[in-house]
Amino acid sequence: MAAQAAAGSANGKEGEEKEKKGGGKMLMIIAAAAVVLGGGGFFVYTSFLSGSDGAHEGAGGDHGGAAVSEGGEHGGGHDGGGASGNVYDMRPFIVNLMDNAGTRYLKVDVSIELASPEQEAELKKLLPQIRDSIIILLSSKSYDDVGTVEGKFKLRDEIVARVNQHLGGEGVRTVYFTDFVIQ
C-alpha cells in the first residue's frame, strides 16, 4: 500500500507539471493571438481610419473592384497654391517590361495635374483610351529605359504627350509618379 501511495503521489506531481506546461502553452497562444489582433487593428486604423484622404486610400487598393472600375478613380482636388491645377489620381498600372534578362514587372501610380478643373470631365470621359495608351507605352519599355532618373523623366514627358493627344491640346501640366516599383 505504501508503494501505491508513493506512486500515486508521484503521478500527482507529474499531473501538476503537465498542467503547468499546458498552461504555459495556452498563455503563448493567447499572447500570439493578441499580437495578431493588435497588428490587424493597427493596419485597419492606418489604412482606413487615419486622418488622411480616405477616398485616395480606397481607390488605389485592390478592394472595391466594382467601384474602381466604374469610375472609382477620383480627382485629388485642388492643391493649396493657386499656381497648381487639378490633380487626378489614376489607378495603379502594373505591366510586364520588355526585358530579355527575364520577367520584370513595373508598378506605377500616376497622378495627372490638369491645367484647369474643366479638363477633368474630359479626362474621365476618355479614361479607357488614356489608360490603354499609357499601358501600351509602359509595356514597351525595358528596365534600361526606366531604371534611371533620366529614364523616369523621359517617361513622364511621354505620358504627358500621350494624355495631351487624347485631350486635344495642352490640358496636362505634368505627371507625378506617386509610386514606382520595378521588380
Give an overview in words.
This protein has seven helices and five strands, in the order H-H-H-E-E-E-E-H-H-H-H-E. With 183 residues, it is α+β, with helices and mostly antiparallel strands. It has a domain at 75-182: Band 7 domain (Tetrahydropterin Synthase, Chain A, 2-Layer Sandwich). Strand 1 and strand 2 (86-89) form a beta hairpin. Helix 5 packs antiparallel against helix 7 (149-167).
What's the mean pLDDT score? Answer: 75
CATH topology of the domain at 75-182: Tetrahydropterin Synthase, Chain A
Helix-strand topology string? HHHEEEEHHHHE
What's the gyration radius in Å?
Answer: 28 Å
Helix content, binned percent:
55-70%
Given this structure, which CATH class of the domain at 75-182 is correct? Alpha Beta
Q: Any idea what the CATH superfamily of the domain at 75-182 is called? A: Band 7 domain
Overall 3D form:
elongated
Q: Give the number of DSSP strands.
A: 5
CATH architecture of the domain at 75-182: 2-Layer Sandwich
Cα separation of the termini: 75 Å
Largest sheet: 5 strands, antiparallel
Number of helices: 7
Determine the strand fraction and express it as a percent band. Answer: 15-25%
Low-pLDDT ranges: 50-83
User: Structural class per helix/strand content?
Assistant: alpha+beta
